[in-house]
Amino acid sequence: MVELKTDTSIDAMHAAGRIVGRALTAVREAARVGVSLLELDEVAREVLREAGATSPFLGYRPSFAPTPFPAVICASVNDAIVHGIPTGYRLRDGDLLSVDCGAELDGWAGDSAISFTVGRPRPADLRLIETAERALAAGIEAAVAGNRIGDIAHAVGRVCRTAGYGIPQGFGGHGVGRRMHEDPEVPNEGRPGRGLPLRPGMVLAIEPMLIAGGKDGYHEAADGWTLRTNDGSRAAHVEHTVAVTESGPRILTARP
Q: Other C-beta atoms within 10 Å of 226: how many?
């Protein structure tokens, strides 16, 4: 069931979303060559603590997961697409890092992700990330009342496919509200004019995931969480929580 949020509820979600934005900004600023993924997780934990927020990631265990998630961020390096568990791995020059983070505040959730490079960037990685951001912007632009879920999916997918990138099937965005994951699902590829109609009060996480090699194949790593590209090529993941309003899409997780 899709819950339509009131203006007051959307404002409360915006408060949670601002904390997510601050956490992601702090993580990006701390991410340097030699810094470990566990250290970045601690950076995000501190932002949440200072804000009086909790993490919807920590202890989360969906049906596919063998163990509860042990961190407050997902940290996915290079060929990891999403759901990377922070470890003692220390960032290397040229790494591509995708970081996903959530926050819960006063009973409402926010969810967002960024991708960026560490040290000297590869031009191909910069193109991949820029395309992911353009796909996200296109999806947000389509999140208007009167459109349908398929319009968002088509907008995201068209940008990705036109640039020659792969899209991991079965993974995409979702509703957000009292919980981090709610109805409806928001695919990263689809047909325009199809799917659930968009109405004011719907709040959606739109999250493109791109595979540089152009193929869609991925596999689950031994940890039971991390998804990696089959061809070993790099991946990028970006995300915002967005409210559908009478005046157009409202980004609730904008970063400072």
A: 22
pLDDT tens-digit readout, 94-147: 999 999 999 999 999 999 999 999 999 999 999 999 999 999 999 999 999 999
Q: What is the 3-state secondary structure (H, E, C) of the chain?
A: CCCCCCHHHHHHHHHHHHHHHHHHHHHHHHCCCCCEHHHHHHHHHHHHHHHCCECCCCCCCCCCCCCCCCCCEEEEECCEEECCCCCCCECCCCCEEEEEEEEEECCEEEEEEEEEECCCCCHHHHHHHHHHHHHHHHHHHCCCECEEHHHHHHHHHHHHHHCCCECCCCCCEEECCCCCCEEEEECCCCCCCCCCECCCCCEEEECCEEECCCCCCEEECCCCCCEEECCCCCEEECEEEEEEECCEEEECCCCC
174 annotated ligand-binding residue: yes
Alpha-carbon distance of 95 to 118, in angstroms, equals 5
83 known member of a binding site: yes
The pLDDT tens digits for 5-37 are 999 999 999 999 999 999 999 999 999 999 999
189 annotated ligand-binding residue: no
207 known ligand binder: yes
CB proximity list for 164: less than 8 A, separation 6 or greater: 214
Cα(89)–Cα(241) distance, integer angstroms: 29
What is the C-alpha separation between 250 and 231, in angstroms, rounded? 36
Token pair, residue 89, equals 């791995």
Decide: pTM greater than 0.90. Answer: yes
Do residues 203 and 243 make contact, with C-beta atoms less than 8 angstroms apart? Answer: yes
Annotated ligand binding at 239? The verdict is yes
